[in-house]
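Give me structure tokens for this 118-residue protein.
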Amino acid sequence: MEKFSVTLPLTGEYLTTVRLTTGGLCSLVGFDVDFAEDFKVCVTESLLLLKRNGYTTAHIEYTVGEALGCHVTGKDRGGEKENSPEDEISRALLSALLGEVDWDMDENGEVCGIRFEG
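Here you go.
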């Protein structure tokens, strides 16, 4: 099992790069096109969820083996926190597309990390 990780600012320019990287890793482990697209959506939604919760940077760690694991963690909190109904939509989307999602919570009960596998 190999690990691949990246730390990035949570700005729009980097989300495209993350989607391309995720797509490449999905191809590496043999995901079909539809599941790869779902997995990319889940990574993007995780990043957007953290951004809406005030994080300005995120760390993504992929575990590459027979499956593809992903752990997205918020770093450098200090951005504008949005109380948005989109958070619930993101959570529901992740659960619907992946089934099992592990949520890391901070001391205030807010999401600070998301872990899933495909």
